[in-house]
Specification:
The protein is mainly alpha-helical. It has one domain: Up-down Bundle (Amino acid/polyamine transporter I). The chain is about 65% helix and about 0% strand. The protein contains 18 helices and 4 strands. α5 (about 105-145) runs antiparallel to α12 and α8 (about 230-245) crosses α15 (about 395-420). It is globular. The relative contact order is 0.20. Mean pLDDT is about 85; it is low at about 1-20 and about 510-515.
Length: about 525
């Protein structure tokens, strides 16, 4: 597993003849088509996992306006995805945010953009592992008819140990390359979508039999019924979490057939498909369970961590075990596919001299960033173990902190698009829309949400109520990790000064670049 090769800048300079400073890293091209990349995007978003984790906290903020919050949260996502397409068409690179922000704003801002992406992925990997552990023991309990097995997830040492096993398996599959990953994902993604479809159909069919049921209302899409902007910001921050992950489609651009076009198109398609899934599941769930704080109600705090655990049996009856298996497979599949993003970002950052050189090494046998994949696994497993000790509600707090990370690096990437293409942004109506309006609106919107959520999360009662020295744990995680990144950046500027002097990846702006 340690046999590696080095490519490009990390081996002593840029490859000749590459445009805009982008250089190859040893990854194998042409391995994925459009369908495979969309499946990977859906797998990373993991609809079953994200909904069971996020429906409770989001309805707690938005109430009956949950559907419109998902729609509002989708707007900056689609705007940012269009910005990603423009950048990818100009400079396809596995470093995505790190590479593009560096080319637009320079190495210091680019390094922080890359850190934001890495932090978000590490946080969500730990969250994915946590959900996988919970549903693993729940599935065993349902399969054997032994309720006490489900309680094993509450045993912290056993929980953490099981998490380590899941992470190790995900790292092993990721290390073996995209062919193995693709085969695994086709089966797991197909299964979870079928079960979600069954869940929605049975919820619509049986909603009137529930004691907490409420009829459908178009008022659910009325944003004016939300009382404060803070609720909108928190709700959007949480809904952003449920869409997040489509950018993995861009991360594999160097390994995709016709990566300049296919990767960007796959990212946009993934976001649209997931929006449709979420609206169907959300409306069906609200109609059956309501938004009350007792019984099956979505605002019952006992249901917040795993909504599908509470609702699968009332809605699906004897088929409830399929939902447990679907969430387990969803979180396990996403745990594996999500490793592609931090591993390739670490690879790119090391390749261009922004991180230690060993992370730039690529496996000869599997053409994967081996060292970077293992490093991402170790850090995410360690983060989960620490969070499981300090947080009273580890899943809720990590989701809220993740929203901050996503707003930061998505917003930064969108603004980088507008600045990078500033010389050609007004050459045509197409460019005005895709290179100026969409990136600016998406980027500014996300930074507004970032700032509002950061201010709100300072209070200890934000999230689970966990705190560090009187400061809310969500703020410590979200803003504290960014501050830690700034410190680490200063250390790397001393150890790897070439990148920070602009020697390996130059800041530039094309006079006119027309995407293929």
């Amino acid at each position: 597993m340690t046999e590696t090769i080095r490519k490009g800048a990390s081996a002593g300079g840029h490859a000749p003849g590459t445009a805009h400073g982008i250089t190859p890293k040893g990854l194998k091209g042409g391995q994925l088509g459009l369908l495979a990349v969309v499946v990977l995007g859906i797998s990373t978003i993991a609809p079953a996992y994200t909904l069971t984790s996020a429906l409770g906290p989001t309805v707690n903020e938005a109430g009956l306006q949950l559907p419109v919050i998902f729609l509002i949260g989708f707007i900056p996502m689609i705007l940012v995805s269009l910005a990603y397409r423009e950048l990818n068409a100009d400079s396809p690179d596995s470093g995505t945010t790190f590479t593009w922000v560096t080319k637009a704003f320079g190495p210091w801002v680019g390094w922080m953009g890359g850190w934001g992406l890495l932090a978000a992925n590490i946080i969500v990997l730990s969250n994915l592992a946590g959900v996988a552990v919970d549903f693993f023991y729940l599935f065993l309990s349902q399969l054997t008819g032994s309720p006490e097995l489900a309680d094993l997830a509450a045993n912290k040492p056993l929980n953490v140990l099981t998490c380590f096993v899941f992470v190790a398996l995900a790292v092993w599959v990721s290390y073996r390359g995209l062919h193995t990953t693709k085969l695994v994902q086709y089966g797991l993604v197909g299964f979870q979508l079928l079960v979600l479809g069954l869940f929605v159909a049975m919820a619509f069919a049986n909603w009137s039999t529930s004691e907490t049921a409420i009829p459908f209302s178009w008022d659910w899409f009325d944003v004016t019924k939300i009382e404060t902007f803070g609720q909108i910001a928190a709700g959007i921050s949480l809904s952003i979490f449920v869409y997040w992950g489509w950018d993995v489609c861009l991360t594999v651009n160097e390994e995709t057939a016709n990566g300049k076009k296919t990767a960007g198109l796959a990212g946009t398609l993934t976001a649209v498909i997931v929006l449709a899934i979420y609206l169907l599941v959300t409306i069906a769930t609200m109609m059956f369970a309501g938004v009350g704080d007792t019984g099956n109600g979505l605002n019952n705090t006992e249901n917040h961590e795993n909504i599908f655990t509470a609702l699968a049996s009332p809605i699906m009856g004897p088929f409830a075990i399929l939902m447990s298996l679907a969430v387990l497979s969803s979180s396990a599949a996403s745990l594996q596919s999500t490793f592609m993003s931090p591993s390739r970002s670490l690879l790119a950052m090391a390749h261009y001299g922004a991180l230690p050189e060993p992370l730039s090494r690529v496996s000869k046998r599997f053409a994967t960033p081996g060292y970077a994949t293992i490093a991402a696994g170790i850090v995410s497993a360690g983060f989960y173990a620490v969070m499981h000790v300090v947080s009273e509600n580890v899943l809720n707090d990590t989701i809220l902190a993740l929203g901050l990370m996503i707003c930061f690096y998505y917003g930064l990437t969108a603004l980088a698009c507008a600045w990078y293409f500033r010389n050609s942004a007004f050459n045509s109506l197409r460019n005005v829309v895709l290179r100026f309006l969409c990136p600016v609106l998406g980027g500014v919107g996300l930074f507004v949400v970032f700032l509002q959520t950061a201010v709100d999360s300072w209070a200890p009662e934000f999230g689970s109520g966990s705190q560090v020295l009187g400061v809310g744990l969500v703020f410590v995680l979200g803003v504290g990790i960014l501050a830690l990144g700034a410190v680490f950046m200063l250390v790397m500027s001393r150890l790897r000064p070439g990148f920070f002097r602009g020697e390996t990846l130059k800041r530039d702006s094309p006079a006119l670049v027309v995407p293929e």
